Structure formats: structure tokens, C-alpha cells
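testing teh design pipeline on a random one, pls ignore if ur not involved
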């Protein structure tokens, strides 16, 4: 009986995760902004309120995630934007795969697309 009571006390002292989150996305209309809107829809079904914070992109998002005073708890960042990972930031995985291409100037001139 004492063990059950001890477990109940310990469980009640641990705070539950917040049901209100702020996500740093990206510029309006960007892939990050659209993905943020989709996450907001999904989390709303579970009773979680996700506030989207438009930013100028991954570099700003990393700075906001690193700053404890920003209020941002989740955001989209791009691998390789910094030499080392920001302090206190944990990656949950890959959401997008970005394909980058490089073309030489001669190819671009002939295609008139670069």
C-alpha cells in the first residue's frame, strides 16, 4: 500500500506537458508555414493549441529555439545552418528533404532558367 501511495505522490508532483505551444515557422506561404498550419490542425484534434510564429526562416528559428525567453518551444530548422547544434535544442527528426542542385553558368545560359 505504501508503494502505491508513493507512486501516486511522485506522479502528482511531475507537471504535465503544456497544452499550449509556440512554433517558429517561416515566411507566410513558405513550406515551413504550410507545414506549421498542418501541425496545428493535427494537434488541435488532441486538444493542443499551437500558435504559429512567422519568421524569416531556419536561422531565426534556431535563435528563437535557443533563447529561453522567446517562448518558442518548437520550430523548423535546416541542417547545416550552423557549425554546431544550438544549446538545449533537440531534433525530433527529418520533416522535409530539400534537394539542392548546382548548375554551371554555361548550362544556365543555354536554358535561360537560372
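output:
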Amino acid at each position: 500500500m505504501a508503494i502505491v501511495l508513493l507512486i501516486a505522490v511522485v506522479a502528482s508532483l511531475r507537471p504535465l506537458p503544456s497544452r499550449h505551444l509556440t512554433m517558429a515557422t517561416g515566411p507566410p506561404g513558405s513550406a515551413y508555414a504550410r507545414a506549421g498550419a498542418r501541425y496545428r490542425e493535427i494537434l488541435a484534434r488532441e486538444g493542443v493549441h499551437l500558435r504559429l510564429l512567422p519568421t524569416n526562416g531556419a536561422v531565426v528559428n534556431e535563435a528563437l529555439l535557443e533563447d529561453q525567453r522567446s517562448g518558442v518551444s518548437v520550430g523548423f530548422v535546416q541542417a547545416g545552418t550552423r557549425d554546431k547544434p544550438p544549446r538545449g535544442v533537440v531534433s525530433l527528426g527529418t520533416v522535409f528533404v530539400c534537394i539542392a542542385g548546382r548548375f554551371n553558368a554555361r548550362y544556365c545560359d543555354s536554358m535561360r532558367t537560372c
